[in-house]
Amino acid sequence: MFLPLKPALLAASLVLIADGVPRFDVELFCRRIAAMAVALEEMEICLRKEREARDQLLQQWTQFPAADRSYCQQLTTTGLDPTYTELITCLELQRDARSLREKDAETAGTSAKPTSKPARR
Fold this sequence. Notes:
Layout: H1 7-17, H2 27-36, H3 42-60, H4 66-76, H5 84-112
Helix pairs in contact: 2-3, 4-5
């Protein structure tokens, strides 16, 4: 039987999830990718790319809003093998989508206002 969670406790746990860059075991993912590839060096390439993505996350993690970090971490860990490339891609998409929405809102706000009074005849 499940005990009811208080909303504040649930919110606090979601923030705790997004506090630091998560640790993923990407080796299984890379082994699976390498098994499907013809070249044996694919696993090393995959692992190198994942290390690079993790390094980038370590540098940029705090620049992403906590809500985006929590959302993307949950999304990335739903399924088989979470990867750092998947996580950073989600975070970048969230950031870029927000930026486009803000730009659209600014454009809509300026186009709704007349720039000058129409000439009277």
